[in-house]
Structures are given as structure tokens and as C-alpha cells.
Amino acid sequence: MKTTDAFAGLDCVDCGASFDAAAEYHTCPDCDGLLDATYDYDAIDLDRETLAARPFDSLWRYEELLPFTRESAVTTNEGATALVDCPDLADELGVERLLIKDEGRNPTGSTTDRGQSVALTAASQHGASDVALATTGNGGQAAAAYAGRAGLESHSYVPSRSSFSNKAMINVHGGDMNVVGGRYDDAVGAFEEGLAENEDWYSVQSFVTPYRHEGAKTTLYEIVEGLEWDVPDVVVYPTGVGVGLVGAYKAATELRELGLIEDLPGLYAAQADGCAPIVDAFENDRDEHEPVETPDTICGEIEISDPPASGRVLEALRETDGGAVATEDRDILEAAVQVAQHEGLEMAPSPAAAASGVWELAERGEFDGSETVVIVNTASGNKEGDVLRSHLMSQGV
Ligand SMILES: [Zn+2]
After folding, report:
1. 389 Cα–ligand 1 center, Å
2. C-alpha 21 to ligand 1 mean position (Å)
3. Which Gene3D superfamilies match (predicted)?
4. Which of 100, 126, 263, 283 is buried deepest, with most CB atoms within 10 A?
């Protein structure tokens, strides 16, 4: 395997056992816990000047902090997305500075490209022939794209409610797609049956492969570097499974470990009222979520009623003195429209939960005016322009 010098292997976050990354691909063979990539940070010599001298061209510019070499990467130059100042929104919300990290500019229009680039690199290094996952949509499109690039087959299980553009593009990338009636949990059930029947399939499911949050962590590196190492006070992630937040927490602690920053940003989870297990657990001081019985939100990408690693997501919020906020679908769609009309940026409905969440935090009086706030726009508005347009129709436009 073409691993980087400091990459030490995989540790189980539950039982603490360590494994060779060439031997273990997925969850812990001892306890089925989640595996996490570990590094010898003392062996990493990375300073602000070194990074500033590198082109801002791909997440692989942080190669030392990734498991695999850039040369071996399955990449379409994902990452290196824009961090856009939104002064009018900052004024309206009463904060010093508000920025949107526009992950919609990734190759397939969503932040999942980061994780799939690293996960498909791992699959390729492990000699996989087929990758498979259950996905609300964006992750499947990205898996199909990167599998195509790596010369592997992909098998995506998507719920019937997944957006047309994701389904269409999974096909366009040559991926095998299984549309499962119902919601995300139904897709997971069908995917698990598929995995059981096909022993050669390699899972690129979030928190089954250790590598999706490893790719996702680079978003936070870019945010902090983009702010010239001035750590933002608040970073709000639209949250379904929570890969982005777990990655962000890891990234922040790594930057601190390397002496590049001192403070951690406050990490916030934003969900939709109709499916907010993380927010509910946070507000009730629980260490784990309770599954949502009847999820119901227009935000299909984050409609995850039973997130597999809620303990880690909640840890990220609490250890950074962050928070959690849920808002109603109507407010979320309106937030996407307001951002589009006043800042020119296109947010899909699910990431607009983060924008709506920031409005809600402002209304609750959580800001004193001195904050720098970053909203992570995880997917392009183009992916679900029809849903956003329908919201205008409901307003009589
Ligand atoms: Zn274990």
C-alpha cells in the first residue's frame, strides 16, 4: 500500500485495539467498533508557510495528514473550495463576519467527494473490484464517479425519495443503482442484504469504511487556513450521519496537536425538526441518540433517523463547546432562497438547514456581535433546484 510516512494504522475507537491498515478495511474485527486512522504527529513537519506556498488545488495538498500518498490518490481535484464572505448576512445576523464554505463546488456538487476520494483510494489500494453503499443520494453519486475513475464497479442503494439528479448521475457515471422503496433505513437494509450476498463487495459506507471522515476532515483545514489561521468561533454543519462533524473535530484537534492553532472552533450540528436525533440527544444531555420513529423532512440528504455514530458526533459538539439546532422545513427552504437572492450562493435544501440554524441561533441571542461564523454548504442548489422552486410556488411566486 502506498501510505504516507506518518500514517500509523487504524485504532478502534471503542475497544482501543490497533490494526494494520493493509489488513483491516472496515470495522473492528474484535468488537465491530469504528476504526479511525492514526498518525505519528511528531513525524509531521508542517507549518503555515509551507502550506501557504502550496497551490490551493485539491484536498490532497494536505497529503501528510492523509493515509495515502497524493500520487496514489483516486482524485478529480476535489476540495479546495471557496470560502465566501457574506457581509449582508453578517449584518442581518449581528455577527462580525459570516462566511459560507461552498462545498457545492466539488466535482459532483457535494462535500461527499472528499470522503469518496479517500475511500476509493483505499478500495483501490486494497485491490477491490466492487464498492457498495447505502446513500441518501450525494454519496452514491460521488462513489459512482470515483469508482468510474478508479476502474471499479459501484453499487448504490438509494431510497426512492432521493433526488432525480443524484439518481440520474449515478447512472451517468456507470454505477449500478438499486432504488429501494421507502426511506434511508430501507436502503440500508437492502444494502446489507446485497453485501451478504456478494462477498467481494467493498463497503464505502460512512463509518464502515474508516476513510470517509478522513477525507471530510480536510474541509476544516481549508476553513482555518482560509481565515489565515484565525479560528472561527462557530462552524455549522448540516447533519445527517455526522461525517462532516466527526471529521471537523478530528481536523481541529490535529491542527492543535501540530501547533498550527491553539483554540478549537465551536462545532454546531444543524438538523431539520422532522428528523433531529442529534439535536434531541444534545439538548437532553444524552451520550447517544434515540432513533426517530417517523422521520419527516424535505431535507432528504440529512433525513437519517438512526445515525450510526451519534456518540462521536455528540463528542465533537461538546468537546468544542459547540451546540445543536433544529429548524422547520419552511424556514430551511426560505433560508436557501434568501442566501441565493442576497449572496448569490446556491444551497441545496439539506445544507440550508445550517443557514436556517444560524438564523435561529441569532434569534436565541447566542451571538454577541464579535463572532466569526462559518456555514458549511455541503451541496449545490442545482441538485434540488426543483424543491427550492416549489418553495417559491408555495409563497405564490
Ligand atoms: Zn474494537
Report:
1. 47
2. 14
3. 3.40.50.1100
4. 100
* Residues 174-202 pLDDT 10s: 999 999 999 999 999 999 999 999 999 99
Using the 3D structure, point to which of 179, 203, 227 is the last residue of a domain: 203
Average pLDDT of the residues of the chain: 97
Buried b (16+ CB within 10 A) or exposed e, 155-179: bbbbbebbbebbbebbeebebbbbe
Please check whether residue 77 is in contact with residue 55, taking contact to mean a CB–CB distance below 8 angstroms. no
Ligand 1 centre distance from Cα of residue 32 (Å): 6
C-alpha cell at 270: 444543524
Residue 137 Cα to ligand 1 middle (Å): 29
The residue from 203, 227, 261 where one domain ends is: 203
Q: How far is the CA of 13 from the centre of ligand 1 (A)?
A: 7
Range of the domain at 181: 112-203
122 and 226 share one domain: no
